[in-house]
Amino acid sequence: MANPETSLKEAASIEGAIGAALVDYTSGMALGTIGGNDELDLNVAAAGNTDVVRAKVRAMEMLGLSDEIEDILITLGGQYHLIRLLKGRGTNGLFLYLALDKNRSNLAMARHRLKKIEEELEI
Fold this sequence. Notes:
By secondary structure, this protein is of the alpha+beta class. 37% of the residues lie in helices and 28% in strands.
């Protein structure tokens, strides 16, 4: 089992990673961040992506969908932004956020690695 700090380090080691955050989407606060740069403030990204998660949850409720969100992908011109909602013990209301450089990353591999990180994370 991995703690949040170890999990964030693992996420930051994914090829093409720009930055990662563990976020509480009930409050919009980042519980931890790693990486980022002048163009990517991870605390601002955490708050903004909380709105994305909340909007998708509301849309699913309005549609009457009883399925679970695995992840949300936002594709920009030069980046991928992955939001992985966590379902493990003690992780309810949390998501992992990962920003990737599109030219240096493999999206399928990043999704696979985030799933593994989720499985090993213990809060």
